[in-house]
Amino acid sequence: MKQLFTLLLCLCLNSVFASGPRHQYVKITTAQGECIILLYNKTPLHRDNFVKLVKQGFYNGTLFHRVINSFMIQGGDPDSKNAPAGKELGNGDVNYTIPAEFRDSLFHQKGALAAARDDNPKMASSGCQFYLVQGKKLTDPQLDSMEVKRLHFKIPLWEREVYKTVGGTPHLDKKYTVYGQVISGLAMIDTIASVQKDANDRPLADIKMNVTLLKRRKARKLEKELRKSGGEQIAFLLNQ
């Protein structure tokens, strides 16, 4: 009887855990739209740090302070809160860095969430600043040239297809840690990347963000919807 009870308990616990979301998700809301980002489990240091800051409300009221069309939009500088117009931003930070977590399967496709950093030799990430990739679609000749001149490694064929059909910034691969992916709301990136800006790439009109963590129930529902939608790209994301 005791063995039967233990078996039933294990089955119940497995059912509970199986029904829960495998990933954590955050939502970034701006006046220019919103997006939902899946955080990768393969980069636990960056994932956990980002979740911690989001729970603290750290990012609320900060700006997307650096935007470059066909490249990326960057935010997370604590000094950007209530910063006066025209002030150069990008140097604010927390008092720690995150060790690089480069993974061959995580790359700079459009919508990638990645950590900003300075030029430190270990390529450690900023503790708070991040960017969302916009990039652009590339051709095989362009990717061939990039492999030789900038990357010095071969881009896998399946990644090439993504860069050719979806777009991205492959020259940043293995140099900056990618730790998430936009799964809805890519249009927000396009809108923000195209705004008017000053000589320091700061938007002339402030773009404030509000960042929240999806609650477990919403995350579970979202993940179930993603699994039902199918497709190789979704299956890939949910395995990272």
UniProtKB/TrEMBL annotation:
This is peptidylprolyl isomerase. Residues 33-209 form the PPIase cyclophilin-type domain. Its EC number is 5.2.1.8. Keywords: Isomerase, Rotamase, Signal. The keyword Signal applies. Belongs to the cyclophilin-type PPIase family. It comes from Pedobacter cryoconitis. Residues 1-18 form the signal peptide. It is an enzyme of class 5 (isomerase). The keyword Isomerase applies. GO terms for biological process: protein folding. GO terms for molecular function: peptidyl-prolyl cis-trans isomerase activity. InterPro entries: Cyclophilin-like_dom_sf (IPR029000), Cyclophilin-type_PPIase_CS (IPR020892), Cyclophilin-type_PPIase_dom (IPR002130), Cyclophilin_A-like (IPR044666). Pfam families: Pro_isomerase.
